[in-house]
Amino acid sequence: MKTSKTTAVVATAVVLMLGASACSGSDDDKNGGGSSKGSGATDAALTSVVNKSDKKGGTVKIELSDEPDSLDPGNTYYGWVQNLSRLYGRTLTSFKPAAGKDGLEVVPDLAEGLGKASADAKTWTYTLKKGLKYEDGTPITSKDVKYAVERSNFAPEALSNGPTYFKAHLAGGDKYKGPYKDKSAGGISSIETPDDTTIVFKLKDPFADFDYLATFSQTAPVPASKDKGADYVKHIVSSGPYKFESYDEGRGATLVRNSNWDPKTDPNRPALPDKVTIRFKVKQETVDNNLISDNITVDGGGTGVAPATQPDVITKPDLKKQTDNSYAGATSYIGLNVNVAPFDNIHCRKAVQWGLDKASVQIAQGGDPKGDVATTLLPPTVNGYSKFDLYESAGHKGDEAKAKDELKQCGKPKGFDTKISARSDRPAEMSMVTAVQASLKKIGINAEIKSFPAGKYFSNFAGNPSYVHANKLGMIMSAWGADWPTGFGFLDQIINGSAIKPSGGNNVQELNDPKINKLLNEGIANTDTAAREKAWGDVDKAVAEGATAVPLIYRKNLLLRPKSATNVTVTQAYLGMYDYVLMGSAK
């Protein structure tokens, strides 16, 4: 997932947002995983529920520094939207709302149970619960889930932001044109709906992680009669405990209770607050100040406080005890686009690998509280991680001699000019890219910084190959967290050739290496867990050998919880941010 945005999956601080109440408590965590604490101390929410409450009412107030790619569950890839969309979109399966490692458990949501797999893991069957309804009272059927998958995976002309797992792995996925172009009544034949409660996925290859895939917002049902393509975001039909009272593109949204949501069918969502408000495009420093002043409930972006705020929250005791510093299961990195010269030459790519002073980048993004220097794409918290460093240097400061030798081998002994992109509304990322620029200048690589808003970063700029090529964006700042806590869930969408898209793509290197593609497909087809996990480390090393991605930081999120926030805990499923399903406010 894209961060800010953004699954990850290993120490994700979840502000269990759907509980709006006042009392703190010391009862056992009824939601599983972790204990309950009162006002909490530093890092209390990493393993426990802070300010636990079951009182209904109140308003959860969310602010974030930019706008989403889309709030449409079928057209998003930001982790914070995946997190938020659970309030209005139920999926076949979901992550358990719980503190600590228990939050990584996959549980049924729309489905009665987890998927029933065939012996070869190529056929997966789910049965929907009875009594499921949309906000207008009409029944939710398996055909609506099928349609949701079709529109989100096979219509990039209208919905370009989400992942492409279903398209890549469904039988016939490479031929189906999507519901907006293919008007046949049956849709894609490899998703069968023999009755209104049964859905069967037939894959072209084994896929051992399919229950994880079913947690994605792309399986949130959409009634075909209400779909308006890219404009569906203006009138999303809710299947969850909240529905849209209003949506103002670029400014915000308000969610209120959905009276047709039946809690008897949904043990995952306590649905405590009466209302949820979201404001977009609020300066990060303002968001931080509002958290400190207890004027809002949560920072929606979930990537932590701004660099300017950090000194106060780590040095002032009253603020420090309200922080949770968790590993996000995410890596910040630079993608080197192989279709933009001179990065079509491996030696020019290796010059960047050897020449970059990663220690200076770590300092620029906030030092140890915001993450550790990375030497691999896979972070240590994801299953399949293997420790290695193919471009090792003293203190992670780079090796100028080896960098200059690579420049000679790529025919650029004096260096070269290029462009590097970053997100303008991410203060930490802008600090990092400035450090990258200064570091590479020492070896003769002059990287001109081009900044773009996060909400359109991948759809219009960094993830749009036509724009990248025309504007010669050779280096692209990015950050990625696992879609689910395995190596495949982390790597596939950023290095598999099948993930390259006309827009909204995350394989920003445009890497399409047959060897790597084969390793990925063989790995996910292996039903032996140990062998599968080893495969991901091998894939990661193969990417490093090709030098197309420069790992920078294993990310941490220095999160701040206001005193009135209730049901605050750290989950390990949504990129180290506070979870929006359990959280509440005492105001």
Topology of helices and strands:
Blueprint: E1 12-14, E2 35-37, E3 48-50, E4 59-63, H1 79-85, E5 93-95, E6 106-108, E7 116-117, E8 123-127, H2 142-153, H3 165-169, E9 191-195, E10 198-202, H4 210-213, E11 242-248, E12 252-257, E13 275-279, H5 284-292, E14 298-299, H6 310-315, H7 317-320, E15 323-336, H8 346-355, H9 358-364, E16 371-373, H10 400-409, E17 416-423, H11 427-441, E18 445-452, H12 457-461, H13 465-470, E19 473-481, H14 487-495, H15 514-525, H16 529-546, E20 549-560, E21 565-566, E22 569-571, E23 584-585
Parallel strand pairs: 2-3, 4-13, 4-14, 17-18, 17-19
Antiparallel strand pairs: 1-22, 5-6, 7-8, 8-10, 9-10, 11-12, 12-13, 15-19, 15-20, 16-20, 21-23
Describe this structure in words.
The protein is built from 16 helices and 23 strands. With 587 residues, the chain is of the alpha+beta class. The strands form 7 sheets. Strands 16-20-15-19-17-18 form a 6-stranded mixed sheet. A 5-stranded mixed sheet has the order 11-12-13-4-14, covered by helices on one side. The two termini are 32 Å apart. The relative contact order is 0.22. Residues 5-38 have low confidence and may be disordered.
Features of this protein?
alpha+beta; 5-stranded mixed β-sheet; single chain; 16 helices
Task: Provide a quick synopsis of the model.
With 587 residues, the chain is of the alpha+beta class. The protein has 16 helices and 23 strands.
